[in-house]
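Input.
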Amino acid sequence: MAVDESGHGHGATYDGGIAYGVAGAIAGDSNTAVRFDGTKGLDVGNVFRFDGVLPFSLEVWVKPSPSSGYAVLLARDTDPNGYALYLGSSQATFERQTSGNVKTITGTAVSTSNYNHLVGTFDGSRLRLYVNGEEVASGPSVSSIPGASSNFYIGTENASSAYIYKGDMDEPAVYDHALTAERIRVHYQAGLGTNK
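Output.
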């Protein structure tokens, strides 16, 4: 069982394709990460809707397999409405889509030998993407997402997606507000065990 540590009860049940007990990303944290083998993701259910132009943030630590390729990390099914934080050609990418109107911002390539801290934020009008505590891309996104019944997934875009993540993942998190650049930097530094 993937436990929701926020206390909101949005856990998910593992259904194969995931190994437990992998070394995690956070310095000094006894909690372990999981390893996706590229065959299955996690269906969290009909949560984290963020309809209209509601703000939100997606955060995760990942160490992808060199063979992971194009892979979705965190997503509410984006066809035709939703959002996703994913790896496209090994680059961190954040997307918001409304009825085929896609706004995508792409950042830097991620390491396959170390954990990468990735955060995508939406403040109601602008997307921002952060890699390892630094903003690497931003762009406007003003279209309203209509209400939909699609689910939220970890490690894949939807139940039938071919874009399944392969690699280690730790501390996926969803927020109902846009994290500030300072808060993201603090999260990244805390993960490294520093407070610079």
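The CA atoms of residues 60 and 78 lie 19 Å apart.
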